[in-house]
Specification:
With 213 residues, this protein is an all-alpha fold. Helix content is 73%, strand content 0%. It is built from 10 helices and no strands. Helix 5 packs parallel to helix 9 (163-184) and helix 9 (163-184) packs antiparallel against helix 10 (190-207). The longest helix is centred in the middle third of the chain and has 26 residues, at 59-84.
Length: 213
Amino acid sequence: MAIRLSGKAEQNKKAKKDALLNAAFELFTRQGINKTSISDISSRAKVAKGTFYLYFSDKYDLRNFLIAHKAGQIFRTAKEHMLKARALPGGAAASVEDRIVFLASDIIDQFSADPSLMRFISKNLSWGIFKHELAVSSDPEAVDFRAVFEDAFEQSEVSYADPEVMIFMIIELISSTSYSAILYQEPMDIHELKPYLLRAVRDIVRGHQQDGI
């Protein structure tokens, strides 16, 4: 028979897990995963080392969870901004293209505001890890980014070929290009580069339209 934890016990459990995630993110972004030990993470989180293993099998398991967790937070924030946006053409009935471009723009802005987050996501995000963690994650903050577009795809008069490939290409484009522009201003500052990036996103979306293939 399963034992249900009390509300206070659940809160305590979540607090410890959050502490581990915050500590790991700080250490991973500051000194890298290879130079970070489980003892370092536990000490920084102020929990017993044994507590770490209640949530994660090793530091790489934690890293994979953290990648999906942080990516989910970014995407959820962008989604919330999109739902509240008055400038989005068509509002709730906006096209798939306009929704994707809005989300891409918002994600670029989030990366610009937090270079350490962008560095961690860009260096560690793997499509396979991201998909796997979203599929099996117990993280209540996990966001299935594909679900954001399901209604739009279904209601759209335009059909799209291989939408998962389309999203993969857009994520890779934004992640890698933002990294160079934000950290090194190459080939230019991210604010100057952003219009070109969003134009490229539109080109990718339009390139996947069934009528255009």
